[in-house]
Amino acid sequence: MTRALLAHGDVVLVRPLHPGDTAEVLALHTRLTQQDTYFRFFGTPSGLDKLAAEIAADPGPRHYAVGCYRRGELVGVANYEVLKDTTDAEVALVVDAAVRTQGVATLLMEHLVSHARKTGLKRFLAEVLAENANVIHVFRDLGLRFEASVGGPERDVVMILEDDPAYVEAVLERDSVADAASLAHLFTPSSIAVVGAGRRPGSVGNAVLGNLVVSGFPGPVEVVNPHAEEILGVPSVPSVAALSRTPELAVICLPAPAAAAAVEECGKRGVRAVVIISSGLTGTEAGERVRAAVREYGLRLVGPNCLGVVSTDPACPYDLTFLGTPVKPGNIGVVTQSGGVGIALAESLGDLGLGMSSLVSTGDKYDVSGNDLLMWWAADLRTELAVLYLESFGNPRKFSRLARRLARTRPVLAVRSGSGDTAQRAAASHTAAAATPAVTRDALFEQAGVIAVDTVAELVDVVAGLSWQLLPGGRRVAVVSNAGGAGVLAADACEREGLVMAELSQDTRDRLVKLLPAEAAVRNPVDTTAAVPPEVFADALRAVLDDDGVDAVIAATVPTAVGDPGTSLAAVLPPEYKTVFAVRPGQRARVAPLAPGPGVTACYDDPAAAAAVLARLVRYEEWLNRPEADEHLEPLEDPDAVRAFAAGHEGWLPPADAVELLRLADIPMVETHYVEAGDSMDAAAADLGSPVVLKADAEGLLHKTAGGGVLLNVRGADRIMEAFRILRSRFGSALRGVTVQPMAEAGRELLVGVRSDPVFGPLVVFGLGGVDTDLIADHAARLAPLTGADADQLLDGLRSSKALWASGLDRAAVRELLLKVSRLAELVPELAELDLNPVRVGSKGCVALDVRARLEPMASEDPFLRHLKD
């Protein structure tokens, strides 16, 4: 059973139907009117009675039915029946007329599609009465490839169930609309109740009520406290049931057992959203009661164990937190799992004069999560910048899609957490050693266009830069300073961050020579000398900004007896086309606005901080402008054969089977022969050419070369036999067998691999391979599925990438290999690890020389199926 949202934000339950549900299906049938039209069901115009019979008979895997329950009542049914000896299924559904415009049919169809794909079905078929245009619209708007016949009293409909990005986008769009509608109960409530507001100043409940009272909330407010008639001027009643009206939103500040009872009372009363400040619920019976109430009554819930929620919408402002100071209204949306981080951000941003559109502390995340806020902010035009502090990801693949959609229109920032690798399991392959939790998380952020930072202080730095300046047009940076040391430090910081020190044009240098003293440095970094007055420094800055070869400028100034050039920057700013950051070493604040008014920019106390912010903004701008390169992969000849082969294996594949998996997936592998340790090499040696390489397959042998498991350039049958005996002697009973391959042509050795995470999905790892793998540890990673642009980012993501591709290696062949490996990871969810190391690449083509693959059973979760957290 899963909770899900209808189009208008109502929470419903969706679950498979079983023989015990027959009576409810028949009850739905009796509520239908003569005017109700729906699918023909197995040849009969009115078929819920037939459906009830099918459910009662429980015909097994050929039949699947799912129902939608609203407030405990079955309001919609959908099912499919697999046609004999085909991968087609006939589909049918019916929805109660009372909810027929609320998206029940579409939601049920999404659940059918998800289940059908898992079972290998390829098409849905349906017969629809011609006058039932609404049903045809449901099919057409799903996002699947769709065909319908024309003419006659019925329409024959075909829906193609293949994976399609258009379908995922359509589902996410419906999810976003429904989620935003449901969160309106949280962010724009018509009335609020504070349950557990205390009379004692200093208590959490008293502080929450006090903040609400002064926040200017325009609707009615009541308090639930059995020991008071009013608190802070707000009328109080002894219970939720005694409230004069049903509040749309309730905030609960009670000890754990009482908090659970209060949530249950709110559900019975019809409250739509609840914020639980209370801690101590998770892992207890009281916590389970809260979760059960959320499911039963269709509540949206923030918390428990949280700071609360703030909204500064001028039409409906409220503060339901125990923050010590009011939040300034603004355009920054914040969601945080940590109340402490929320407090720090509210104070730090407030000190800079920056305000929030909303602040949500999710705490233990029983329901509302970061994904919900990404969908809310996409619809909230007041939010122009999104900030996230997330300690865990419930559905990272969905997060990636949602963050990517939002980041296309406004910046999304995240504070990294859990970067340590102490939880990493012992690596059984080179790929696993490179795929740490931090690498996986960073790949998620990079692909989604999220600007990631490591500390709250860095977050504030970047928010200031984004709030007060344009995004830079490129990586070419000029530094202008009246203190040579500050300029050098800034230039060094820019180069460390991967920025490019711009080459100033001759015209620019000529202008600077005329403006500045003879001892000034007019090449980048520009040193005006400390002797120039503020107005001359401003003219020099204008000259540099006018240079077409400059995308951004860092202006580092210190006050002198001649004047303070920093005071002149406001007269130059804002340039309407270039980014300028100021640096004033020694200023008290880490970052501050340079000056009030239209010339404001971020002023940092250290050149390194300014360069770090500028680099992050450059990378975000490049992500926005990155073309989505095509994959250009030929379709697999028989993808079902790949799935079938994987389904018959578990654990580390024997070498021969791993090679076969690559062959089926069209991944290039050198010709390989495998001889088991107890077999004779005679026949194989007679058939093999020369020279060859022998590789031991021995228990516990990961690093074959370092462990003495590789014998190279073996020539002739006699030498091959002798090499085989050497390996048997060297590894004894641990030797399972020997792989024999022809010697590959010379080339660079690379690593390509997959590590699958049960939460994040498969991660594709690329880097230097062979003997360089562990010595240099130069790797890049991206989450599958890879786009062409993702593959290009991997190829360019190594420290050695520039030199690697300048040496004439076949980049296109390696790019194709990355995309094929990504396709295999998506096609076979059971692929827990894949290690192609080394991959030999030359000027023409590439080929894997060694492969290790591990398959493990994995629950097939659909990350994009619409459902709320249970």
Fraction of helical residues: 25-40%
> Strand order, biggest sheet?
1-2-3-4-5-6-8-7
Question: Which spans have pLDDT < 50 for at least 5 consecutive residues?
Answer: 37-46, 421-427
First-to-last CA distance: 9 Å
Proportion of beta-strand residues: 15-25%
Please count the helical segments.
Answer: 27
Mean of residue pLDDT? 90
Give the class from helix and strand content and strand pairing: alpha/beta
Largest sheet: 8 strands, mixed
Radius of gyration over C-alpha positions, nearest whole angstrom:
32 Å
Would you write up a description of this structure?
- This protein is α/β, with parallel strands linked by helices and 870 residues long.
- It has 27 helices and 40 strands.
- The protein is flat.
Secondary-structure blueprint of this entry?
Elements: E1 2-5, E2 11-16, H1 22-31, H2 48-57, E3 63-70, E4 73-82, E5 88-95, H3 104-118, E6 123-129, H4 133-141, E7 145-148, E8 154-160, H5 165-187, E9 192-195, H6 204-214, E10 221-224, E11 230-231, E12 234-237, E13 249-252, H7 256-269, E14 273-276, H8 285-297, E15 300-302, E16 308-311, E17 318-321, E18 329-336, H9 339-351, E19 356-361, H10 370-379, E20 385-389, H11 396-407, E21 412-415, H12 430-434, H13 437-448, E22 451-453, H14 456-468, E23 476-481, H15 484-496, E24 500-501, H16 506-515, E25 526-527, H17 534-545, E26 552-556, H18 569-572, E27 579-583, E28 591-593, E29 602-604, H19 607-625, H20 639-647, E30 651-652, H21 655-664, E31 673-676, H22 682-687, E32 692-698, E33 710-714, H23 717-731, E34 735-742, E35 748-757, E36 761-768, H24 772-776, E37 779-783, H25 788-795, H26 801-806, H27 811-827, E38 831-841, E39 846-848, E40 851-855
Parallel strand pairs: 5-6, 9-10, 9-13, 10-12, 13-14, 14-15, 18-19, 18-20, 20-21, 21-22, 23-24, 23-25, 23-26, 26-27, 27-29
Antiparallel strand pairs: 1-2, 2-3, 3-4, 4-5, 6-8, 7-8, 11-12, 16-17, 16-19, 28-29, 30-40, 31-34, 32-33, 32-34, 35-36, 35-38, 36-37, 38-39, 38-40
